[in-house]
Amino acid sequence: MKKKKKQIKEENCFVEMFKELSFTIIAEAIFSIIWNAILFIPRSIIRLYNNMSL
Fold it and tell me: Where does the sequence pass through the membrane (predicted)?
């Protein structure tokens, strides 16, 4: 009985770590997409302005 309880605790620990890791990866990906979208708009405006002035 004791061995089964220890194995369950270890599995739960790994499952919790995996859930936390997957959450951080998803959050980082969403943040990266939003950040790139925010930075894309000024860059496109600057390129448009430079192309028009030439």
Answer: 21-46
